[in-house]
Specification:
The protein is mainly alpha-helical. Helix 1 packs across helix 3, helix 5 (107-128) packs across helix 8 (172-188) and helix 5 runs antiparallel to helix 10. It starts with 18 loop residues before the first helix and ends in a 15-residue tail after the last helix. Helices cover 64% and strands 3% of the residues. It is elongated, with a radius of gyration of 25 Å. The protein contains 10 helices and 2 strands. It has helices spanning 19-32, 45-52, 56-68, 89-103, 107-128, 131-146, 151-168, 172-188, 197-215, 219-236; strands at 72-75, 81-84. A two-stranded antiparallel sheet has the order 1-2. The longest helix has 22 residues, at 107-128.
């Protein structure tokens, strides 16, 4: 068929979304929008089939999709069902970790990310830390001091201390981003130049200084000291900056 100018009328092919995707979209918006609260139990599969007119297979696919997104948890048993949950910091960290690993990003990228994140997290920690946060940081610092003779143990304790500072920031999004790359960062510090008793003592000293600034709620000083610490760490690890590394133990 042609229009009045003699040109053919062309209509693009219409691609309709799959029914289970539409149901998942509807439930997702209701959960994230607060219409359905965390802890609520969704209607049973049978009820969802009756309410939506979809097949049981489509309903199950929708619930499976929401479960993979961390929005629904299936509990078996008489008092179980499909329970509404909300994404946790761990979900964000896992997704970001998979992105970094899937892209095969080099250590240079991880270092640049850390350059931005950690000084800002130290400043925020100084502003928002609680007594509980301070106790957690000091506990992790004591673990670090106790592990000074064993570099592998020291490296693991170091990760926990940096994550404790991040947690004190009260910014879950930034904390999740740091936790997602923290293991890869630890691998970058296993070069020979970093693995010395002298360097480990330097780390202990600067950690003490950063904690003192956070405890005094001096955000500017905490940020500056953390930046100095991160810069020194990266300078030691420069030899392997182009290497890609696993983002979790066991990789």
């Amino acid at each position: 068929m042609q229009n009045r100018k003699g040109k053919p009328i062309v209509v693009n092919r219409v691609s309709a979304p799959k029914p289970y995707s539409l149901l998942a979209d509807q439930l997702r918006e209701a959960i994230l929008g607060g219409e359905i609260s965390e802890g609520d139990t969704l209607p049973s599969e049978r009820d969802l089939v009756e309410q939506t007119g979809l097949t049981r297979g489509s309903v199950r696919e929708a619930l499976k999709l929401l479960s993979a997104e961390g929005l629904v948890q299936t509990r078996p048993g008489r008092f179980g069902g499909n329970i509404v949950t909300l994404p946790r910091k761990e979900n964000i960290a896992n997704s970001l970790s998979q992105f970094v690993r899937g892209k095969g990003l080099p250590l240079r990228t991880l270092h640049e990310t850390r350059d931005v994140l950690e000084p800002a997290l130290a400043r925020l920690a100084a502003a928002h830390r609680t007594d509980s946060d301070l106790e957690n940081m000091h506990r992790r610092h004591e673990e670090l001091v106790g592990a000074v003779e064993s570099f592998p143990s020291f490296s693991r304790a170091n990760i926990k201390w940096h994550n404790a500072v991040a947690q004190a920031s009260s910014n879950e999004l930034l904390t999740a981003a740091l936790e997602a790359i923290s293991y890869g960062i630890s691998v970058s510090t296993t070069v020979e130049e970093y693995n010395t008793p002298e360097t480990r003592q330097q780390v202990i000293r600067i950690h003490s200084q950063i904690m003192a600034a956070i405890e005094a709620q001096d955000g500017e000083l905490a940020e500056r000291r953390m930046r100095q610490h991160i810069n020194a760490t990266h300078a030691r690890a420069v030899a392997i900056e182009t290497t890609t590394v696993p983002l979790s133990e066991g990789e």
